[in-house]
Every structure is written in C-alpha cells, then in structure tokens.
C-alpha cells in the first residue's frame, strides 16, 4: 500500500509539473530619449528578487519572476550623474519604488519558434505599478541535468501601459515610450 501511495505521489508530480527555483539572473534594460539610438539612451540592470520556472516533464510550462524595482541601476553613468538618474527612475516621475517596490512577470504560455537560436516565444503578463499588460518575447530555453536556462532576445515594451510616465507632460515627450530588455534566468 505504501508503494502504491508513493507511486501516486510521483506520478502526480510528473502530471502536474514541478517548480525550479531561480538561482541566477541578469536583467538588462535600455531607455531612450527623443531618438531611439545608443547616443540618446541610458541602460542598466535590475535584480530578480525571486522566481520559479514550472516544468512538466522536460518542458517549461510556466513561471513567475519578481523584479526588485528598488535595485534599478543605471550602468552607463557613474558618480553624481548615476546617483541622480537612479533616484529619478525610482521616484514618482517613473517607477515610484516606495509605493511599488516590486514588479512581476508571469509566463502564461510558450510556443515553439522557428528561429534556430530563440526556439520559443514566451507569452506572459507584466505587472508594473499595479498595472498589468501582456508582454511576449523570443527566448532560447534549454533544460539539462535539472537546470533550466531562459535567455531572451532583446525585446521592447511600452512603458505607458504601466503608467511609467514622466509626470510633466512636456518632459514625457522627450522620453521614448519604448523600454528594451534582455533577460537571462537560470533555475534548478
């Protein structure tokens, strides 16, 4: 009877999937001024606070990632200018991290992609500042020896969908709505 119960538990785990905890991550962002170019942009990093990737057998079927918005950091500047930009991104003009210290991304589905490098399209919902909108991106996903790797292609989303807007209307015209991101996550 004990063997039968153990078999049922194991089979249930395979049928419903298992979760792999995020153990390493690298999230890079780019924001642009009037012209979307490297010369008119800022870029930086953001930490993943926690996350999990849900598996069914050897296939990724879902996942959730919590982004630590208090960790947003400009890496193209140094010293006083870096501090000023970091504080500006964290205040009410943009991400309001005191009120919204985290953002989340939840994978809702994956679809095979014909690209040789980025073999999946990841579909999900991004929640920033309490607003949720769909965000999809191509990603290279691999699974080997209990470790899942997800590496996105650089992708773009519209910051206005999340009320990430420079609060002065004239100044918001100077900042592009596009935010680019590149995400790398390892889970086991």
What does this structure look like?
- The chain is of the alpha+beta class.
- 17% of the residues lie in helices and 56% in strands.
- It contains 3 helices and 9 strands.
- The protein has helices spanning 2-16, 79-90, 169-173; strands at residues 18-33, 41-56, 59-74, 102-112, 120-128, 131-144, 147-152, 155-158, 175-187.
- The chain has an 8-stranded antiparallel barrel.
- A hairpin with a 7-residue loop joins strand 1 (18-33) and strand 2.
- The radius of gyration is 19 Å and the shape is elongated.
- The two termini are 32 Å apart.
Mean pLDDT: 88
Radius of gyration: 19 Å
H-E string: HEEEHEEEEEHE
Overall body shape: elongated
How many separate helices?
3
The oligomeric status of these chains comes to: single chain
Could you list some keywords that capture this structure?
188 residues
Summarize this, please?
With 188 residues, the chain is an alpha+beta fold.
Question: Topology, pairings included?
Answer:
Layout: H1 2-16, E1 18-33, E2 41-56, E3 59-74, H2 79-90, E4 102-112, E5 120-128, E6 131-144, E7 147-152, E8 155-158, H3 169-173, E9 175-187
Antiparallel strand pairs: 1-2, 1-9, 2-3, 3-4, 4-5, 5-6, 6-7, 7-9, 8-9
